[in-house]
Amino acid sequence: MLAINGHFKGQPVTGVQRYAREVTGRFKRMGQEFQWVDPPPGLESDALRQLWMQLRMPARVPGGALLWSPTNSGPVFHARQVVTLHDLADQLHPEWFSRRYSAWRSMILPPLLRRVRGIITISDYSRRTILERYPFTEGKIEVIYNGVDSRHFRRRDEEEVGRMRRKLGLSKRYLVTVGSLDPRKNLNRLLDAWHRLPARIREEYELVIAGASSDKFSFSLDRDPGERVRFTGYVDYDDLPALYSGASLFVYPSLFEGFGLPVLEAMACGTPVLTSDTTALGELAGDKAVTVDPQHAGQLGDEMLRLLEAPGRRRELGEKGVAYASGFTWDETARKTLDFLDSCT
Fold first, then answer.
1. Exposed/middle/buried for 257, CB within 10 Å: 0-12, 13-18, 19+?
2. pLDDT > 70: what percent of the chain?
């Protein structure tokens, strides 16, 4: 029997929660039976839900069931478990996170990873960093890539893009980045690169930053972003394809990613991508995107300008991206996940 840790269901939907929702949704379509193990609804804070997961969840898992914890954490005192560990950002770069959050993760990860039967991660990069940090995980780790829902993330027509523009108040051509407002998304360097662009470009375009902040992260802006920079806050899932589709360029100079799901989503919508050549992003993007050193604002700005002035190159990248993204499906992710879970029972 399979039980699934439902801790994520009360959280805002970012990449990790999207993964859990997409895969469990496919389990249902595939006829895979499972039982949710959810925190009680009265626990509104993440800290209280974490404590409940550690102290009470083990007793709620049905006897003999394998527990799958899909979002980076699970109950330490439940060994019959597989955990999906997306990346080790909080351990490798604790300065990007709140002190309390990174300390908590440092305390629970080693005993959790020692006890579980298996570990799923989402890129070869993440597998290597987990093994380097926790050598005792050798033989436990399975790499299963994320997918993208090409029925949802696809090029949207001008009418739908227009509705999204009116909803978000976007009147100019724009570049876009999508992700949580946290230090690893490298927004301060992106703003530096943006302000290096010629004034004529910044008159013609806006830079759209879509995403919300979280108390898990330690982040602040180093400068006044300027009037041509638009912070939209969290963008509804249903609006994301039109947001990608309407952009002249998707820019994602993240310093650290275990996978980089927005890159794949933008590609599926036919949007040319400029991203980092480091961590899992270089592994994911390959030659289907333009990649840069995310530490180098000058290089980032140069490539932004080069692409904005080369519509033919942008079209070429957009076409390559659509074909490439079609090879990543949540159906395949779910099938491989079930196969691995079966092997751990």
1. buried
2. 97
Neighbouring CB atoms inside 10 A of 12's CB total 10
Q: Which tokens sit at 62?
A: 């049905």
d(CA 155, CA 36): 35
* 196: its two tokens: 């290096």
DSSP state at residue 4: E
The answer for residues whose C-beta is within 8 angstroms of residue 246's C-beta and 6 or more apart is: 156, 161, 164, 165, 170, 174
Higher pLDDT: 304 or 13? It is 304
Question: Residue with structure tokens 């020692």?
Answer: 114
Tokens for 258, please give them: 């275990």
Residue with tokens 């499906």: 329
pLDDT at residue 15 in the model: 84
DSSP letter at 96 equals G
CA distance 308 to 245: 15
Q: What is the distance between the alpha carbons of residues 11 and 239, in angstroms, rounded to a whole number?
A: 19
256 pLDDT above the threshold of 80:
yes
Q: For residues 62 and 214, which has the higher predicted lDDT (pLDDT)?
A: 62
pLDDT of residue 12: 77
pLDDT band at residue 55 under the 50/70/90 scheme: very high
What is the DSSP annotation of 127-175? HHHHHHH-GGGTTTEEE------TTTSSPPPHHHHHHHHHHHT--SEEE
